[in-house]
Structure formats: C-alpha cells, structure tokens
Design brief:
Layout: H1 3-13, E1 20-25, E2 29-34, H2 42-47, E3 53-57, E4 60-64, H3 69-81, E5 85-87, H4 90-101, H5 105-117, H6 121-140, H7 148-162, H8 164-175, H9 180-190, E6 199-200, E7 203-204, H10 211-232, H11 235-279, H12 281-287, H13 294-304, H14 309-330, H15 334-344, E8 346-347, E9 350-351, H16 359-367, H17 390-393
Parallel strand pairs: 1-5
Antiparallel strand pairs: 1-2, 2-4, 3-4, 6-7, 8-9
Length: 402
C-alpha cells in the first residue's frame, strides 16, 4: 500500500483534515495534534495493518508505523492537509511525556537509589570480570593464588568490594543533597572494626552490619539532617558545627537503629526479597524501576560473594524474547507478526542489536494475551527459549487462530 493511501486512511479516521492541528514525526511514530479527540476513530486506527501501535494523550494521537516509514507518512499527511510537518527528537519527547507520569515519591526514591549505584557499574564490571579470570586461573593453575602475580590479580578483583561502603556513602549523600564526604565518613565509621563488640543501650554493635542497605539509609538521612542543621546554624559556626553535629548524631542513630534494622532485613528478609524481585522483575522493567534492584545485587554480593538475582533476571529478558519468537511462529495476523519481529530483533532479514526484549517489547507481547485478545491460555514450558521464568513463558501461549 502506498504511503499516500495510508495517509488518507489516517486522516479519514482522525475526523478529516479539518480536525488536524499539527503533524510531527520521530524515528518510529507519527504524532498528530487534533482539535477534538472524540472525532477520532481510535479503535479503527488500531485495526489497520500498517499501524503497529496507537497512543492517545490528551489531544495528541501517536501512531507507531516503524523506522523510516514515519517521516514519509508524516510528509504525505502534510501535503494533503497543508499543515507543515516537522521532525522531533523522539528521546526528548518520550522523556518529557514520561516525566510527570513517573514523578511519584516512590519512583523518585528508586531513581535516587539507582543513581547511587550507576556510577559504580564500570568498577563492578571490571572487577567482576577480573574475579572470573582470577578464580578460573587458580582452578586451572593450582597455586596461582600464592604467587606474586596471583596476589596482584586478587587485589584487582576484590578492590571495589573493599571500598564499596565508602563509595555508596559518598554517592548517597550527594544524591540526597548532602555533603558527599560526610556520607563517606559515616560509611567508614560504621565499617570500622573497633566498634565490633561494643554495647550501646544494650545493643551489641558490629562493623558492617546491614551492608550497603544500612549505609544507604544512614547517608540519606544524614544528608537530610545536615540540611536541617545548616538552616538553623549561624553562618559563623556553620563550617565547624554542622558537619560535627551531623556525623555525631548519625553515628549513634546508625549504630542504635539503622544498622540493626538493616542487618535484620539483610539476614532474614533479604533472601525473600531477592526471590520476590525475580518474580516482579519484568513489570519493574516496564515501569523503569528495575534500576532500584542494583542495591539488592550489591547487598547479595556483600553477603554471599555472588548475586543470585542477576542471572535469573537476565533469563527473564531471554524469556520475553522467546515468547516473541513463539508468537511470531504461531500467529497468522500480519500486523502482529511485524510487531513480534521487531521485539525478537528481526528486521528485513537482518538481526538488530538494539532494544531486544526491552520494556516496550514486554508491554507489546504481554498485551497480546489480555482478555479478549486471544481465546485461550496454555503453558508452553521451557521450549520457547529455555527460560525458567514460567510467568513470561506463559505469555507465549498464543492461540493458533491468530
């Protein structure tokens, strides 16, 4: 079908050209502002074979038509209606659209937690790979760990984990609006060996109790406390007394309240939370909150030396791609087949390497199995992609009638 015919169909279903105000396109979407959204036949637009997705936000109608196609269709609509067409930065537009939707207190906190750990990722990657090389080395070359070279490899491999609490304290204070160095100092205090065995109000203290969770809490609250003290402190005394009071107060609060609390969560509730995180990982990806799990991974590494969460969450993404493959093979709906080809990473006979199994693809595949979209559910087991994430694999059970 020609782009001109597609443009004519879209205009007709949007209430004729008199109802159109502006036309824009980004990489994959045609974005049209209309005078009266009630005149738009949105359900009919969704049924068009060449429309891969439809979103209505206020008076803005967004039609997903795919890369390369969006600019041509927007140009045809512009020529037919006489409305000047323009191209927009998709990333900037999507970011602006999602800003208010995601601007909830809970998501803001998760975003800050993610921002604490994201700068540490390069060190995690480098040292994590070195751990694999070092531990494989002394398996295949017994005695390597006793050599000078082996000791250097060990120092590199485990370096980030030895200073992780201090890095986390520094980044947390910075993200929550405090002095970063005070967060680092508080982390160092709570991990000092000399506090192990001392008793405060009947509570026995232990260095490093609660791991990075306690550091996150203490540094974040310390940043808030620092701002409160600074507002009330005379300027002449601010430089000296604000950091002193902040460190003194938060040290005792950390030892008495936050370390025992975080230690309880880490020792008893932590493994259960890790299991729950694997269950809800893909819904978290869909909302962009999965970065908050970096703290869980870091705590697992601190407690057990490894993270059992990350491999499972990786396979959840693989399960999503497997589900898309299953739908791609079973469906006879041409429009749906195009959508699933994009999800699985197949485009015009070539494998693509971007956004395979990403948040948008998860929503698109799962939406195939909402009530009314298929006639039955069936479990297809692990043969879709080998994933053990049965919740996602179950979404691959698409009826043969579509």
């Amino acid at each position: 079908m020609s782009n001109q015919k597609i443009a004519l169909d879209i205009i007709a279903l949007l209430g004729t050209k008199e109802n159109l105000l502006s036309v824009e396109n980004c990489m994959t979407r045609v974005r049209i502002n209309v005078k009266d959204v009630e005149k738009c036949e949105v359900e009919q637009l969704k049924k068009l074979e060449y429309i891969l997705g439809t979103t209505v936000q206020g008076n803005n109608v967004q039609l997903v038509v795919g890369p390369g196609k969006s600019s041509k269709i927007a140009a045809e609509i512009s020529e037919i209606t006489g409305i000047k067409s323009s191209e927009v930065d998709e990333a900037a537009v999507r970011k602006e659209e999602n800003r208010e939707k995601n601007n909830t207190p809970f998501k803001r906190v998760l975003k800050k937690v993610a921002s604490v750990f994201i700068p540490i990722l390069p060190a995690f990657i480098a040292c994590g790979l070195m751990v694999a090389i070092y531990e494989a080395g002394y398996v295949f070359f017994p005695g390597l760990e006793e050599t000078d070279f082996g000791k250097i490899l060990s120092a590199i491999a485990y370096s980030v984990f030895s200073i992780l609490p201090i890095i986390v304290g520094y980044n947390t204070a910075k993200e929550f609006g405090g002095s970063p160095i005070l967060g680092a100092v508080l982390a160092a205090i709570l991990n000092t060996a000399s506090i192990t065995g001392i008793h405060i109000l009947g509570i026995e203290c232990a260095a490093g109790r609660g791991g990075v969770i306690s550091i996150l809490i203490v540094a974040a609250i310390g940043a808030k406390l620092e701002r409160i003290i600074r507002k009330r402190m005379p300027e002449i005394l601010d430089t000296f007394l604000t950091p002193l009071f902040t460190i003194f107060i938060m040290t005792f609060l950390g030892l008495i309240i936050f370390q025992p609390l975080a230690g309880f969560v880490s020792d008893t509730v932590g493994p259960a939370l890790a299991g729950l995180a694997t269950l809800v990982y893909l819904p978290l990806v869909m909302t962009g909150m999965h970065h908050g799990l970096i703290a869980v991974n870091a705590q697992l590494i601190t407690d057990f030396g490894v993270t059992y969460l990350l491999p499972v969450t990786c396979m959840a993404g693989a399960g999503q791609v497997g589900a898309a493959f299953y739908v791609l093979l079973k469906t006879k709906n041409k429009r749906l087949k195009k959508v699933q080809e994009c999800i699985a990473g197949w485009d015009a006979g070539n494998w693509r390497t971007f956004d395979v199994g990403g948040d948008g693809s998860i929503r698109k595949t799962i939406s195939c199995f909402l009530p009314g979209r298929c006639s039955r559910w069936q479990r297809c087991g692990n043969h879709a992609c080998g994933s053990k994430d049965s919740g996602i694999i179950r979404t691959a059970a698409f009826t043969d009638n579509n």
